[in-house]
Amino acid sequence: MQAGVRGFQCTPASFKLVTSMTIRTAILTLCLLLQAAFAQAQTDLRSSVDALGQGKFADVEAAITVLAKTGDPKAVPVLEALAAGDLYTRKSDARVFMTRAAGDDVILIDPITGVEDATAPKASVQKIRVNNTVRRAVRTALGGLTLLSPERQTRLAAAQSVLMAPSGEVLDLVETALATEKDADVRRVMEEARAASLLKSDRSTDEKKQAIETIRQRGDRDALGILSSALGSVDETLRPDVERAIAGIEERQALWNAGQNVWYGISLGSVLLLAAIGLAVTFGVMGIINMAHGEMVMLGAYTTFVVQDVIRTRYPDMFEWSLAIALPLAFLFTAFIGLVIERGVIRFLYGRPLETLLATWGLSLILQQAVRSLFGPTNREVGNPTWMSGAFELGGLTITWNRLWIVVFSLSVFLALLAVLKRSSFGLQMRAVTQNRRMASSMGIRTPYVDAATFALGSGIAGMAGVALSQIDNVSPNLGQSYIIDSFMVVVFGGVGNLWGTLVGAFSLGILNKFLEPYAGAVLGKIFVLVLIILFIQKRPRGLFALKGRAVDA
Amino acid sequence: MRFTPHMKARAFGALLAAAMTSTALTGAFAQEDTIKVGILHSLSGTMAISETTLKDAMLMLIEEQNKKGGLLGKKLEAVVVDPASDWPLFAEKARELIEKDKVSAVFGCWTSVSRKSVLPVFKELDNILFYPVQYEGEESERNVFYTGAAPNQQAIPAVDYLMENEGVERWVLEGTDYVYPRTTNKILEAYLKSKGVAAEDIIVNYTPFGFSDWQTEVSSIKKFGSAGKKTAVVSTINGDANVPFYKELANQGIKAEDIPVVAFSVGEEELAGIDTKPLVGHLAAWNYFQSVDVPTNAEFIKTWRAYTKNDKRVTNDPMEASFIGFNMWLKAVEKAGTTEQDKVIDAMVGVSVPNLSGGYSTMMPNHHITKPVLIGEIQDDGQFDIVSQTPGLIVGDEWSDYLPDSKDLIADWRAPMSCGNFNTATGKCGGKGE
Questions:
Q1: A132 at interface of B, judged by CB pairs closer than 8 A
Q2: Which residues of B are less than 8 Å from A61 in CB distance?
Q3: How do residues A210-257 score in pLDDT, each as one tens digit?
Q4: Nearest one of B433, B427, B419, B426 to B8, comparing CA atoms
Q5: pTM value?
Q6: Of B208, B244, B281, which is closest to A522 when you measure between CB atoms?
C-alpha cells in the first residue's frame, strides 16, 4: 500500500522542486525532499479525490480503484460520502467537495480534512452522480480499507463486502487483518472472505482445496454463488472438488428449503388468520354476510397512517411506538364504525342474508370512496419501525422481522379473542345469543345490545388487523378488497362458527398455498387451492370443524 | 376488430355512421362557444390510484390553454366521466362522451383492456382517442394516438443498459399476469435470446393482480441469483403489487448492487407510498422523470403544484405523455383549422411539439411518437437519478421485430397506404390485429 506514496518521491515534479533550489545545503534539500514527498502524498490523495468528479461512471469507478490503492484511511469518509451522494464538483476548477446547506448557498467542506472552505451558490457546484456500478466499487474499496478498523461492526461489514466481491488483490489485506483479528464472528467471515479471494488468486492448488472446504462449510446461497462463479475460473484439477461442494450445499439447501416453505406458509397463514378473525366473529358467530369487513381492515390501516403522520410532524422521537399507539386507536375507531353500521343498517336486516349482503356491499363501496375523497386515491406511506425491518438467519432459514411479528401478533389476537369468548360474561352472553336467541332473551339478556357489541368487536379486530397489514401491504382505499375473498374462504373452510376452525383453516391454506407456489406458480397455485376448497366443501359443507347439535339449525 | 375486412371499407363505414347520426348532430354545426374535450379516466375502483392523477393533469392543461386564449378562438371545455375501473363501462362512457356530449377528442384509458374495450366505439363513431400510457404494442389504429412508450421505447433500452453497464447475464422476468407483461416478456425473451442469452439463464414468473405475499418469489429470485453470474430482475409488476414486492426485497436484504430490479410500471407516484431508503439503486425505465433538469419541465412542475395546491405533488411519465398528446392535438387542430375528426387525424401525422425532457416529440405515420429513453435509479427521496439517456429519439415500434408473427407488419396511416397492419412480406394490408 505504501508503495504508491514512496513512488512519488522520484517523480519529475519533485525533482524539479529540488533542483530549483540549488543554493541550499544538502541537508536542507533532503529535508525539503521529504516535505515535498509528504505534500506530494497529500496532493496525490487530493488529486485522486478530484478525479472522482470527472468523466463517466466508468472513469469514476477507475478513480475509486486508484483511491482504494492508496490504502489511506482518509479516503474512507470520502468514499462513504460518494456512495451517499454527498460529493459535489465545483464547476469553476473541478475540485471535489462535500457540502452543507446554508440557505440558498452551500458551504463547501474539504472531504479529506473535513475543514470548512468557502461558501458558494448552489448553482456553482454539481453533484457527482453515482449508479450501482459506482456503489459496488465503493463497497469493495471500503471493504479493503476498513478491514483493520477498530470498530467490530465496521470490520464485520468490511469482511462481508470482501466476501461479496472477492478478488486476488485484496487477499494480502485480508490475511493481514486475519493475523490480528480476535473476535470469533469477524474471524469466521474473514476466513470465508480469504477463501473466496484465494479462489480468485494464483495460489497453490492445496490452498485452494482448503478454501473450497471453508466455503462449503458456510453452506448458504452466497457460498453457492462464490463456488458457481469459481467453477469457471479454477483449473481442471479442482473442478471435481468444486462440483462436489456445490452438490453438497444444494442438498443441504433443499432440506432448508422445505423448512423455509413451511415458514412462508405459516406467515401467509397468519396474515389470512388476521384478516379472517374479525369475520369469524361477524360472519362465523353472528351469521352476517359482512362484505364491508375488508373496509374495516382498510380503516385500521388508515388509522395507522394518521397516527404516524401526527407522530412524524409533532413527536418524531415516538416513531418506534407508532404501531403500539395505533393499535388501540384502530380498535376503538373501527369498533365505533361497526357499532354505527350495526345500529344503523344491519339490525333491520337480521334473518335476511341476501339483503344484508347487498347492504354491506354498498357500505363497502361508500367507505372506499369516502376514504378516496378524504385521503386521495394514491397509496399512503406507512413506515416500518426499525424492529419490524430486515431479517435474520436461523440456520438456513431467512426470517423477516415483520413477518415474525405478524405471526406473533395474529396468534395473540386469536388467543385474546378466545379468552373473551370463553372466559368473560360478555362472551357467554354472546354465545348464548347466537346459539339460541329467544332462550337467551327470556333469560334476561338484552339481545340487541349483545348484537351491537359483538359486531363492534368483530369490526374492532378487523381494524387491528389493518394496523398489522399496513406493514406489509399498500395503504390505499383498495386494501380491503384484496382480503375479503380470502377471509370468507378461510372462515368457510375452517367451519362457520368455530374459532379453532378459522385458526387451522388459515394455517393449512397458507402452507398449502406456499408449497404449491414454487411448482405451480402463484397464479396456478391459487387456482388449485380454490379448486381444492370447492371439492372439500362438496364433501363437508360445514367446513373442517362443523358445529354439532341443534344450535346449527337455530 | 376481427370482423372489419378492409381499412378503406372501415373508414367508409365510419363516415356512413357519422352521416347517419348527423341528423341527430345538427346542433354540432350550429354556432358553439366551446370546444369540448372528453376525459375518460377511472376516478373510482382499482385504477383510480393511477388514473385520477391524469384526469387532474388534463384539467390543468385545459385550464392553462384557456388562459392562453383557448383554441381557434373558442374556449375549451372539459367533460369528465368516471368509467370506475370497469372495462365495459369504458365503452359506454366513451359512447356517451361522443354521442351525447359531442366531444372533439377524448383523452383517456390506462389499462390495455380498457383501450381494447373502447376501440370499436371510436371506430364506429369516428372520434379520436389519445392514449397516454406505456403498453405492449402490437396495435395501430386510425382513431387512436399512442403517446406512451411502445416496448422498444422502454423495455429494450433498459435491458441494453443492464447488459452493457452492469454486465448482467441472468434474467428474471417478473410480471403481473395480464396482457402487457406477457407480451413485453415475450418480446424481451426473444430479444435476449437473439443477444446470446441461454434459455436456462432466463426465468419468467407471473403473479396475480394485487399480489401481496412475495416471500416465495423473492427468495427464488435470490436463489436464481446465486449461480455465480450477475443477475437482474425485469419487473412488469403492475400497480398495488409493487409496494409489497419492494418491501419484501428490502427486508430480505436484496440490494441493488447485487441484484438490480428494473421496473417499467414504477414511477414517482408509485414510490410515494414506500420508504425508498432500502431501494436506492433499483432502476426504472421511462421517457420522462420528474428529475429531468430542463426549464420546460421546471415550469411544468411549478404549474402542476400550483394547480393541485400541493408543493410536494410529484409528476410522472404518463402525465408527460398526456401533455404531449394534448399539445399535439392543439397543433393539429390549428393546422387543420377545424376540430373535425377526419381532418385532424390527417393533420396529426408529422406534428412536432416540445416534450418535457428538453427535446421535441413527433407523431409518426404509425400513430406512435418519437421519444428519448431514460434510465433512472431510485433515490432515497423517492425521485429518480437519471443514469442513462439514449443519445437520440427513438421511434415507437408498434409491431415488434422480435415476435415472429408481427415482424413483417408495419403501420402507415398516410394515404395511400392508410393501413395499421401492412404485411411487407405479402404486400397486403391485413393480418394480425384484424
A1: yes
A2: none
A3: 888 888 888 888 888 888 888 877 778 888 888 888 888 888 888 888
A4: B419
A5: 0.83
A6: B208
